[in-house]
Amino acid sequence: MQSKLGTYLNFCKRAGKLTLGVNAAKAARGRAYLLVADASASENTKKEIGKLSKKFACPVIWVNDLASLVHKEACKLALVAEEHLAAAMQQAYGETE
């Protein structure tokens, strides 16, 4: 699952449809279809991610070691702004649970 999810995240990154970081996600405008969050985030960060999930009305996928998937050190949140890739990530994540 991690490699498939990482592949989809990199597709979004190449397409310019991926926002990395909690502060960048707060400042994001437009539609978000999925939030991918690191399970090792602090409690305050998890609260902020919950608020963003409500703001954008989108689901959150919690993964281990998000930083290695998006190739950015200490990254705790990735916002996906591409509908079809977000659906594919949700489907891939749901198959492994």
Please explain how this structure is put together.
The protein is of the alpha+beta class and 97 residues long. It is 55% helix and 16% strand. Helix 1 (2-15) packs antiparallel against helix 5 (83-96). The model has no long low-confidence stretch (mean pLDDT 91).
Question: What is the element layout, followed by pairings?
Answer:
Layout: H1 2-15, E1 18-20, H2 22-27, E2 34-38, H3 43-56, E3 60-63, H4 66-70, E4 77-80, H5 83-96
How would you sum up the global shape?
globular
Q: Strand count, sense and closure of the main sheet?
A: 4 strands, mixed
- The stretches of 5 or more residues where confidence is low (pLDDT under 50) are none
- Widest sheet, order of strands: 1-4-2-3
H/I helix tally: 5
- Helical fraction equals 40-55%
H/E series, N to C? HEHEHEHEH
Distance between the termini: 9 Å
Structural class: alpha+beta
Give the averaged pLDDT, no decimals. Answer: 91
Could you tell me the number of beta strands?
4
Tell me the fraction of residues in β-strands, as a range.
15-25%
Tell me the radius of gyration. Answer: 12 Å
InterPro entries: Ribosomal_eL30-like_sf (IPR029064)
Protein name: 50S ribosomal protein L7ae
Organism: Candidatus Gallimonas intestinigallinarum
